[in-house]
Amino acid sequence: MDDSARHRTGLLLTAMAATAWSLSGFFTRLISADLLTMLFWRGLASGTAVMLVVLYLEKGNFIATIRAMRWPSFAVMIFSAAGMITGIGAMRYTSVAEAMVIYATAPFVTSALAYVFIGERPSRSTLIAAAVALIGVTVMVANAGGEGSNFGRILAVFMSLSLAGTAIVLRQNHDVQMLPAMGASAWLCSAFCFCFAPSLAISPENFRLTMIFGVLQNAVGLVLFTCGSKRIPASEAALLAALEVPLAPFWVWLLLGERPALTTLIGGSIVLTALLTHIASEVRSTRMVAAI
Questions:
Q1: Closest CA to 163 of 217, 210, 229, 116
Q2: Would you say 140 and 264 are in contact if contact means Cβ atoms under 8 Å apart?
Q3: How far apart are the C-alpha atoms of 82 and 158, rounded to whole Å?
Q4: 42 Cα distance to chain centroid
């Protein structure tokens, strides 16, 4: 696969990962179990699903692949597990709107940290698209009212930092098999929640929804993001992950009938336009380079 095709594939896979992750608000609304109990069962489901994918891909090399894990894999495990806990926690302890506007800073955070730690300069189009996306999210939360707690806002900050750390490590170690680390990160999330959950009891309906939540939203997103983010710059991976911001309220409206506010529709359109324009620009650039 040439560089342009690799880049296009990375854009597509990362955008699909963001689409899967955008279902988090929908499932969080449906599941009534307490946060840590939900995260415990969700982590078991998603971690097992990802590991089954690794087992299928590696076949007879599964054990050797697990033993070959080194510090980049463990770093991804920690960053990803932290993102799972803080991301869903932010939506429980503050408004979704406030959590999303903080999360929208992830492309800026990733660009800055990638430049500091791995010397990766973001492209001009990436910076412009990130700035426009942030404007769109600001419009979305113009009437949010600021009803969330400071604890929820802090969780949202760590959610953004976790995504940045994950994207940077994956980009810097694109030749390392990271899917086992992603599966283990979900189990690590479950282990953390096991230590602090008041009870692991869950109703059959909540259990069923949590299993779907873990596989459809988290496991699918982890697999796609792991495969896609290796092929594109870390700042672009974080920018595409911001597709979750406008898509999250869309799914709630489509599947639960909760009509989003006008500001949400306008702001979401701005974010989607910025992201799709950036993707189209990058695809054209890679085609021009390939043609030279």
A1: 229
A2: yes
A3: 8
A4: 15
Query: Please, what is the average pLDDT of the chain?
Result: 83
The amino acid sitting at 11 is L
Query: By the 8 A CB rule, do 103 and 156 touch?
Result: yes
Q: Is the pLDDT of residue 37 over 90?
A: yes
End-to-end CA distance of the chain: 17
Residues 6+ apart with CB under 8 A from 269: 136, 246
Helix (H, G, I), strand (E, B) or coil at 108: helix
Rounded to 10 deg, the angle between the 96-103 and 150-172 helix axes is: 40
Least confident of 53-62, 118-127, 138-147, 186-195: 138-147
Rounded Cα distance, 233 and 110, in Å: 10
Tokens of 286: 């890679």
- Whole-Å CA distances, 152 to 47, 231, 236: 25, 33, 26
Residue 18, Cβ density class (10 Å: 0-12 exposed, 13-18 middle, ≥19 buried) = buried
116-142, pLDDT tens digit by residue?
A: 888 888 778 778 887 887 788 778 766
More confident residue, 14 or 111: 14
Tokens of 217: 């939203």
Q: How far apart are CA 65 and CA 205, in angstroms?
A: 36
Rounded CA Rg of the chain: 18
Q: pLDDT band at 208, cuts 50/70/90? A: very high
Nearest CA among 60, 48, 154 for reference residue 99? 154
Q: How far apart are alpha carbons 82 and 10 in whole angstroms?
A: 24
Instruction: Quickly list H helices, the chain.
Output: 3-21, 24-30, 35-58, 62-67, 71-93, 96-103, 106-118, 124-140, 150-172, 179-196, 204-212, 220-229, 234-241, 244-256, 262-291
